[in-house]
Amino acid sequence: MTGGGAGGCWRRNSAGRGLGELPRWWWRRLRRRQQERILGLSLTMPTVEELYRNYGILADATEQVGQHKDSYQVILDGVKGGTKEKRLAAQFIPKFFKHFPELADSAINAQLDLCEDEDVSIRRQAIKELPQFATGENLPRVADILTQLLQTDDSAEFNLVNNALLSIFKMDAKGTLGGLFSQILQGEDIVRERAIKFLSTKLKTLPDEVLTKEVEELILTESKKVLEDVTGEEFVLFMKILSGLKSLQTVSGRQQLVELVAEQADLEQTFNPSDPDCVDRLLQCTRQAVPLFSKNVHSTRFVTYFCEQVLPNLSSLTTPVEGLDIQLEVLKLLAEMSSFCGDMEKLETNLRKLFDKLLEYMPLPPEEAENGENAGNEEPKLQFSYVECLLYSFHQLGRKLPDFLTAKLNAEKLKDFKIRLQYFARGLQVYIRQLRLALQGKTGEALKTEENKIKVVALKITNNINVLIKDLFHIPPSYKSTVTLSWKPVQKVELGQKRANEDTTSGSPPKKSTAGPKRDARQIYNPPSGKYSSNLGTFNYEQRGAFRGSRGGRGWGARGNRSRGRLY
């Protein structure tokens, strides 16, 4: 990624291709037109009858067709005629093109004139025939021309251009890619945008014999050049392109992609939480990296950055996406990555930062007055969604340093943590019972209402937290339990049956027992009846999912200082 700018955010130079960078064939064609105007040349405009007569001469000549250069020139001159003459020329020129290599340049220019005609039917016919010109050294030029024609607003023309590009792709994939990437790197914004879109949607439709290993290597090489200067939306599309390549499905291939994403995320730079573009860039990059992580492709570099740079600034994060809970988005991504974290250099330091952030969302029980009532006016707010993410991340990283709670914390700190866990677990139990009661007996369509969907997710969250808290209350703390994060897909199970089996499938405690150790039950704060049930009907769990905002709206702003409107 090219650095610089406010917060080092992504950008794309909007200057496009300068006049001096136009291809040589374009200049030759321009000079030819200028010469015609200056000299007042008036090419002979053949009639429909003359076109048919010269077509017949060429068709009857069979193997000696190349000897009738004058007849082919008459057909080329047909592009200067009327509508009927142009339509015939659009069909006849490509039919005999291969027999007159010395007129190749003139023939392609003539067909291009037809591709720019005011009559849409002539344009469509000319575009449809363009693949016939894609022979030998002409193919990259034809690919370049077709890529530029992607900017058409006519849907039928656009489909013809797409089909033509696919057609020449099957002839010569490398040559076609040369034309496409030439326009992506140097073309106008609309052409660049649609060329990238073409690659992201059409490559996956090509057969294996077209997308060979060598072709995929070329795509990767050229994509790296483009990624030096892209917008956020373009980056997402290129990750879609690259992650779909067969050669990058291996462990080493996935590792290459992770390194590409890490470079774009600028993980070497200090994080700026007040810059919404930079926050968005980090989240977008991380979303692209998460599906690539596995037990062999580690997330260590990203997890380290989140712990060191992002968590301490969690409350200061800003986002350009309206209505997005940016803090929850960050915590969800961290939780997903934590499962695949490898050996971390500063594990204890980062685990402590994660632990301290977890404490912020696990309140101490309110102080009791002499009469046993709360001394304060309000119960602490239990933020289940945040705690699920933080507790899961701590549980995953804690496996790598299992004595953290017992050996790395002093006795007072550990006692304080257990009191918080006990208080949270007690509230959790009340809420789980309320949710189960609300969902009891509901199956099928009844569970598909918006209200019940929220309750089902809420039950999943609270069950997950419950299992993790039970683990941490073991002496010594255990890190063996496995849970599926509430927003991640699980195997299909009848929800009615799942509710009945919840105690065994999720590791939830029996209804009459809390998640904490019974020997310390006397220390748990007893909330008055109904304290947690009052919010049941208006539970506001965020259902955006981990990837909201990844492809829409702003991306990383514009290329350079100019905003880019997305057409589709």
From TrEMBL:
Is Repeat one of the keywords UniProt gives this record? yes
Cellular compartments annotated: Nucleus
Q: Its Gene Ontology biological processes?
A: apoptotic process; negative regulation of apoptotic process
Composition skew (Polar residues), residue ranges: 531-541
- What is one term from the GO cellular component aspect held by the record? nucleus
Oligomeric and partner information: Monomer. Interacts with FGF2 and ACIN1.
Which named protein is this?
Answer: Apoptosis inhibitor 5
What is the organism of origin for this protein? Trichechus manatus latirostris (Florida manatee)
Its gene is API5
